[in-house]
Structures are given as structure tokens and as C-alpha cells.
UniProtKB/TrEMBL annotation:
It comes from Spirosoma sordidisoli. Keywords: Signal. It comes from the Bacteria. The keyword Signal applies. Residues 1-23 form the signal peptide. This is DUF4412 domain-containing protein.
């Protein structure tokens, strides 16, 4: 009987070790989905296109982030702000089911990695407010990741918001959500300001799976342009 107990205990120990190792495996490839909820309204009406979800695709160091917006008066009117980051640099563009400017449908803003860093630095110099961690409120687990609920300081609000972050993965959201660019790790729940409306983004699923390389490449129909080139093209467009 003692021999059987030792076998059972050994098996349980192995299972615990395997579970621990699997939990510590880095998230190298897959999808994180966020839902968007309106917390406070600045004024009646508000912008017609409201964020409904954000989807983050990760493959190694490559990223693709999509911010989905839906017209509250017309559910077929959908716009996506898309950010792609690969070994060449970063691309920003918009896709829409009902484009209002066909020029925007054929171009994408391109920045080298160095230009992207410079942009964030310039925003700081221009007085853009960034949140930083003031203190840890609670240790928690979110989507099977070790996480922390934190109180934030800084930002443009007098009331300090809270956020949930994980240091287990490191995904940069700062180019699209400037206020969280100084937070460590990856924010799993945080607030953003949409024309005075407070929107909360909450990570609802994390799925490790193989992704196609095409997700992290700019569509061939789009022409990459620098910020100055894009400004010139749009000013000349009739």
C-alpha cells in the first residue's frame, strides 16, 4: 500500500510541475480579445462610431492590433483602425465598410522603429499625459496569467483610475492608446478617453494558436507613406 501511495504522490507531483511549467510558458503566438464598455458619457449623443472591441494578434515580435468601431445608428457601418508592427517598422491605416475618402483606402502611414520611438518622445514633450503605476492594489489572476490590479497616477483626469496589468507578456499598445504607453507589461483592463466619453477595455480571451504571416504584412494594394508624404497626398486629393 505504501508503494502505491508513493506512486500516486509521484504522479501528482509530476502533474503539478507540468502545470506550473505550462503556466510559465511565454505567450509567443496567438490572439487577445478585448471588449469595450462605455463607463461615463460626456454629453448626449457622442461620436457616432463607438469602439466595440479590440483584437491583438501576436507572432513573435510581430503585432497586429485592430480597434473595431460600429456606427450606433447603422450596424453595417464598421470601421477598423489597424496597427501592424513587423521587422520593417510600423503601419497605421483605416478600413471601413463605408469609406468616405477613397484615397485613405489605398494608403498607410509608415514609421520606422526609430521614428515610432521619436513620435512617443515628442508627444511627451508636447505635454501628452501618460499614466504610470502609483501602487499595487491586489495580486490576481486574469486569463490564467499572473496579474496586478494597480492604482494609476498621472493622466489628464483628476480622479485616478485603476487598471489590471500582467508582466507575464509584453505587448506594446502605446502607439494606439497613448495614455498606457508607460505601463509595464501588458494592460488587461484599462480606461481610455473617446472624445470625452470614458471607455473601458477588458481582455476577455487569450488564445494561443498559429497565425498566418499575412496578418503582419501590409496589403499590397496599400501604399506606405511617411507622415509628410501622406499630408501632401491628402492636401492634393480632390
Amino acid at each position: 500500500m505504501n508503494f502505491v501511495k508513493r506512486i500516486v504522490l509521484s504522479c501528482l507531483l509530476v502533474l503539478c510541475l507540468l502545470s506550473s511549467l505550462l503556466a510559465q510558458r511565454p505567450f509567443l503566438e496567438g490572439v487577445i480579445s478585448y471588449k469595450a464598455d462605455t463607463i461615463t458619457q460626456a454629453e448626449p449623443g457622442g461620436p457616432p462610431l463607438f469602439p466595440t472591441q479590440t483584437i491583438v494578434y501576436k507572432k513573435g515580435n510581430a503585432l497586429r492590433i485592430e480597434i473595431w468601431r460600429v456606427n450606433k445608428f447603422d450596424s453595417t457601418d464598421i470601421m477598423k483602425d489597424i496597427y501592424i508592427r513587423n521587422d520593417k517598422g510600423a503601419y497605421l491605416y483605416t478600413e471601413s465598410t463605408k469609406p468616405i475618402n477613397r484615397m485613405l483606402d489605398s494608403i498607410a502611414l509608415f514609421m520606422t522603429h526609430e521614428e515610432e520611438k521619436q513620435l512617443l518622445a515628442e508627444q511627451a514633450l508636447q505635454g501628452m499625459e501618460f499614466y504610470t503605476v502609483d501602487r499595487v492594489l491586489q495580486k490576481t489572476t486574469w486569463l490564467n496569467l499572473p496579474a496586478e490590479k494597480v492604482a494609476l497616477k498621472g493622466g489628464s483626469n483628476q480622479t485616478l483610475p485603476e487598471a489590471v496589468i500582467t508582466r507575464a507578456i509584453d505587448i506594446t499598445l502605446g502607439t494606439l492608446f497613448n495614455s498606457v504607453s508607460k505601463l509595464p507589461g501588458t494592460p488587461l483592463q484599462f480606461m481610455l478617453d473617446e472624445r470625452g466619453w470614458k471607455i473601458q477595455l477588458t481582455a476577455t480571451s487569450l488564445t494561443a494558436k498559429a497565425l498566418s504571416d499575412t496578418l503582419f504584412r501590409l496589403d499590397a494594394k496599400r501604399k506606405p507613406m511617411s507622415m509628410s508624404q501622406m499630408g501632401g497626398e491628402l492636401s492634393d486629393f480632390k
